[in-house]
Structure formats: C-alpha cells, structure tokens
Write a structure and sequence with these properties.
This protein is an alpha/beta fold. It folds into 2 domains: 121 residues, 3-Layer(aba) Sandwich (Rossmann fold); 201 residues, Dihydrodipicolinate Reductase, domain 2. The protein is 31% helix and 32% strand. The strands form 2 sheets. The chain has a 9-stranded mixed β-sheet. A 6-stranded parallel β-sheet has the order 3-2-1-4-5-6, with helices on both faces. The mean pLDDT is 95.
Length: 354
C-alpha cells in the first residue's frame, strides 16, 4: 500500500535522512514524500524546490489528506505536542528520538496513539548500526552465552545546534545516550532493576555533555554506557563479556571485531601451597585450564550491513498489518526510566531501584 509522508521539522534529519528514505521508495510504491511543516521559510523553500507542498500553519498541514504518515523531526521539546496533534488528526507518526522529555510525556503519546488507533513509532535507527549488529549476531547465535557485562561507549557526539540548549531538551544523554541505552535494552530484553550514574556538564553551561550510566537487568547482566561530547578521541565502542566468550568492537561503523573464546576449558583439582604461622602446607584448589582462541568476528559468514531503512520497512509493514512493531512501547518506557533514574542517581550519588 502506498503511504504519503508529511514532515514536521525539515532540518538536518527531516530534509536529509527521512526525506531521502521516502523519496528512494517512491518507485517501490510504498512511500511518497508529500508535504512539509516547518517554522523556517528556508526549509519550506527547500520543500517547494523538491516539489513538495510547504505549510506555515500546522492545522492546515494536518488537514491535508494526501498523506497518512507524519515524521516528527523537530527539536526534542516539541515531540510530544507535534506527535499528539498528528495522531489526533488521524495520521500515523514516526517520531525522532528521544521520544519526548519525560516518562509522563511518553505516556501521553502512547495513550493518544491507543485512543486514536493510529500507530506511533520511535525512530531508534541505531538498532541497525553495523557495530551493534555484530554484537547482536554474536548474542543471538549463542556464541557469547549469557552476558555478564556489556560496555558501550560513544565519544564525539558534540552537542551542535539545539542539542546544546536546555529548553530544547538537549544534552548528551538525550542525544546519544538514548541510542546506546536503547540498543542494550533491545538486546537483553529483560526488565531493568537498578541504575547508578554520573552525569555532568563539563563544558556546556546548560546541559549534560558527559555521562556514565550503569544499569542492571533482572537476570544479572550489567551494562555500562559512557557518552561524551567533550572528549573526542574514540573509546572502544563495545566490550561484551559473555560466559562463553568476549567480543570487542573497536569503533562505531566498524563491521569487524575481535572475539576471544575458549576452544577447550576444564576445571582441575590441584595441590597448592598455603602458609600458616609455622610454615607452609598443602591445600587443594580448583584451577581453570583454557585454550583461548582469538578470531576476527563475525567468522561465520554473517554479512553485517547497516540498513537504517530496515526500521522504516518494519514501521510501514506494521501500519499495513504485516509485522509487529520493532521498537516496542515497553522498551521506550524502560529507556526513559533509565535516563530519568540516571539524572536522579547522579544528583544523590545513590543507586536508584526501578
Ligand atoms: N535518529 C538519529 O540518528 C538522529 C540524528 C540526528 C537528529 N535526530 C533527532 O531529530 C530531531 C531533529 O534534529 P535535527 O538535527 O534534524 O535538528 P535541526 O535543527 O537540523 O532541524 C529541526 C527542524 O525543526 C524545525 N522546527 C523547530 N521548531 C519547530 C516547530 N515548533 N514546528 C515545526 N518545525 C520546527 C526547524 O526549523 C528545523 O528545520 C531531534 O529530535 C534529534 O534528536 C535523530
């Protein structure tokens, strides 16, 4: 089925990525870009140059019935209002991350979607980044076993434009943290029980520009996420410690990592020397004998391909009743509760139980 797309906010993401996905799929006949609502004349002019309709009035834009899908790509503080108004107008909505500014706003957006019967999608496209896909493949194929600890870092998300301003709900946790936390919540897919964090304003006077968040899943897996907009040298992107092996992915957008696993492992009883007041004596202990392998990963023929548009396919298939929503509401809620708990923990210095 063909879906017309209207864009609220036609800046970097709206006129760049989202427009291009719809334009590229015009021939595939499932999407077609139709109209733009933006507060800036320059962005409306760009829309007209591309053959789209341009509106400076939101109500008129929303009453245009040539499109049934709205992409919300405004600064974060407008997400809730734009999403709810579009849903009320009978449109399905693809809303950029972060979904909103608070859990309360997200509940309002979900409730509006349920009441109107129109779908709401949160655009967590980094579920399709290559470095994450490699980690997910290792986990899904059982190669890592249960994960004890997963470390995920991204440094270099300089807070440009409205990301640097408090009233636009900027900050590094909302900008990059929301992606990295979402990836892990999606991967482990268990409730989260506690959060500890250190979130601070290093250079930016208004919003957080560096944060480390540690959260623990009910099954015991611990995640440590570090994001920074002030320290630009890359940290290692992923270090995943599983019961069967360890996977490192060095940098964002890298397809290959390093995997270490035991080709053989056995626990053996052995005599060891211990010491008392009067000298040495023999005690028994168990020691692990392992033969460790080190390979370039993936090593099983899996082709890692970055395909953010796969999320679009899922969203359109969900509207058409052919798929289940990939970015589930319970995951969106969990990611937000982690971020809110991170701010609280950083203020009090205490672990926050969810
Ligand atoms: N998923 C991703 O990978 C990704 C990447 C970058 C940005 N984003 C998200 O996309 C959103 C937009 O970011 P951006 O980088 O495109 O910002 P931007 O500043 O380049 O674009 C925002 C656009 O919204 C317009 N706008 C502002 N207020 C408006 C309003 N009230 N009504 C209508 N239009 C309004 C602006 O004129 C501008 O054209 C943010 O929520 C951001 O977090 C997501």
């Amino acid at each position: 089925m063909k879906h017309g797309v209207g864009f609220i906010g036609y800046g970097h993401m709206g006129s760049g990525y989202h427009y291009q996905v719809a334009e590229d799929r015009r021939d595939a006949a499932d999407l077609v870009p139709v109209a733009v609502y933006d507060v800036r004349q320059s962005q409306r002019d760009l829309a007209v140059e591309r053959g789209l309709k341009a509106y400076d009035d939101l109500d008129k834009f929303l009453s245009d019935d040539e499109f049934d899908v709205v992409v919300v790509a405004t600064p974060n503080n407008f997400h809730r209002e734009m999403t709810c108004r579009a849903l009320e107008a009978g449109k399905h909505v693809i809303c950029e991350k972060p979904a909103a500014m608070t859990s309360g706003e997200i509940e309002e957006m979900i409730a509006t979607s349920e009441r109107t019967g129109k779908k709401l999608f949160i655009h967590q496209n980094r579920r399709f980044d290559v470095d994450f896909l490699a980690v997910k493949h290792a986990y899904d194929t059982g190669r890592l076993g249960k994960i004890h600890t997963i470390e995920s870092n991204f440094c270099g998300g300089t807070l440009m434009g409205c990301r640097a301003f408090e009233d636009h709900a900027g900050g590094i946790l909302f900008d990059w943290g929301v992606h990295l936390i979402d990836q892990i919540v999606y991967l482990i897919d268990e409730p989260v029980k506690s959060v500890w964090a250190d979130v601070y304003k290093e250079k930016n006077p208004e919003v957080d520009d560096r944060a480390t968040v540690i959260f623990t899943f009910e099954g015991g897996t611990k995640a440590k996420v570090t994001v920074s907009g002030t320290f630009l040298a890359p940290y290692q992107r992923f270090a995943v410690y599983g019961e069967k092996g360890v996977l490192w992915m060095d940098d964002i957008y890298e397809k290959k990592g390093t995997f270490r696993e035991a080709k053989s492992a056995q626990w053996k009883k052995e005599d060891a020397i211990a010491y008392g007041k009067d000298g040495a004596f023999v005690r028994q202990q168990e020691i692990l004998e392992e033969d460790l392998d080190r390979v370039e990963y993936p090593d099983d023929g899996y082709e890692v391909n970055q395909d953010w548009a796969a999320l679009y396919t899922n969203m359109i298939d969900t509207i058409d009743g052919k798929a289940e929503m990939l970015v589930r509401y319970d995951q969106v809620r969990t990611v937000f509760r982690i971020i809110e708990a991170a701010f609280e923990s950083s203020k009090t210095g205490k672990v926050v139980e969810l």
